[in-house]
Structures are given as structure tokens and as C-alpha cells.
Design a protein that fits this description.
The chain has a single domain, classed as Gcn5-related N-acetyltransferase (GNAT) (Aminopeptidase, 3-Layer(aba) Sandwich). The chain is 26% helix and 31% strand. Strands 1, 2, 3, 4, 5, 6, 7, 8 and 9 form a nine-stranded mixed β-sheet that branches. Helix 1 packs antiparallel against helix 2. The relative contact order is 0.17. Bound molecules: coenzyme A.
Length: 175
Amino acid sequence: MPIIRKEYYEDYEAVREVHRKAFGRDIEPNLVISLRNTDRMLLSLIAENSRSIAGHILFTTATVDGSNIRLATLGPLAVRPDQQHHGIGTLLAREGINICRELGIPAVVVLGEPRFYYRCGFKSASNFGLFPSWQGIPDEAFMALELVPDALKSCQGIVRFAPQFDLAMPADQGL
Ligand SMILES: CC(C)(COP(=O)(O)OP(=O)(O)OC[C@H]1O[C@@H](n2cnc3c(N)ncnc32)[C@H](O)[C@@H]1OP(=O)(O)O)[C@@H](O)C(=O)NCCC(=O)NCCS
């Protein structure tokens, strides 16, 4: 299995290629670039296999309207196509979630493929009374995971991702 480590400046170009190849477009690599070095950045991890970068995951912060809570947003997440289906995406997600827990983040939200994220313990965010700020997102595609028991009990409403996501979103909901 690859090692999971923090992303460094020297990794940026390879990380861009991982996202470009995995998503087959520039939206996600550009989103990663636009989120780096902002005050919303929480965590950027890579999976390194034989000195090459097999995958990358980013965590940024999100807020909930009417609440002071600060959540983590998971994504974008990408694994190089020739390295997929070997558990690397799951490893990156789980390691990132563990670090978020250590950082005291109460919960993580994600917009993505439920069949992948349910494996990591996510549930539809509407179960917690949380909803995305974008129109037309299928209920099951917007998910949440409590890292502290009942952390989401007293906070319900619209989740605001970093504004950079808004630019990436309108044409596509598949981040
Ligand atoms: C999604 C992604 C990160 C998963 O990485 P991975 O290393 O292949 O994931 P793992 O090996 O840990 O887990 C694979 C399992 O997750 C599930 N899964 C992964 N991608 C899926 C998808 N698009 N739809 C449904 N289930 C999916 C399947 O159950 C799969 O099991 P399988 O390998 O037996 O088919 C990777 O496929 C990828 O980069 N995809 C393109 C970019 C993308 O869509 N990223 C956002 C995810 S919402």
C-alpha cells in the first residue's frame, strides 16, 4: 500500500495531473489550486507509491448558516486511473478523517458518490438536517459524518463550502 503524507509544494504539478487524469477535465485541478493558500485550507494529503503520486485529497472548512460550528469539507479526492480499485481512495479518505478528528473538527461533509463514501461511514446529510447551498443536488450525494457524537444535533441548515466551490459547481455537481 502507498504511504499517506502531507502534500508539499514540490508535489503540486503531480497532484494536478492526478486530478486531471482522474476527472478527465480541468475543473477539479483548478479548484485545488484555487483553494490552496486560502484561509479555508485544512489538510492536503497525498498517497505516494514507489515515489510517484497515486492520489490526493483536500479538506477545507465549511460553515452552517445560523451556527458557529466549523465543519470540514472533503474533496476534491482523486486517484490516478491506473491505481484505482486498490483501496487508495478509501485510505486517503480515512486518514484525512482521522486527522480531522484529531484536530477537533466535529463533522465532515462531502458531495460525491454515495457508494464510495458510505463505505467511510458517511450518511445523507439531510438525516442531520444539513443541506447544500446549491440547487439540484440529489439528496444521497450530499453526505455528512459526525466525528464527535451528536455534534450535528444542534446545528441544522444550509452548509456553505469555501466560495471557490461555487465557481466550480454550476455546470456540474460531481465534485
Ligand atoms: C472515487 C475514487 C477516488 C476512488 O478511489 P479508489 O482508490 O479507486 O477507491 P477504493 O479502491 O478505495 O474503493 C473503490 C470502491 O469504491 C466504490 N467506488 C469508487 N468509485 C466509485 C464510483 N464512481 N461509483 C460508485 N462506486 C465507486 C466501489 O465500491 C469501489 O469498489 P471496487 O473497487 O470493488 O469497484 C477514484 O475512483 C477517482 O479518483 N475517481 C475519479 C475522480 C472522482 O470521481 N473523485 C470524487 C469521488 S466522489
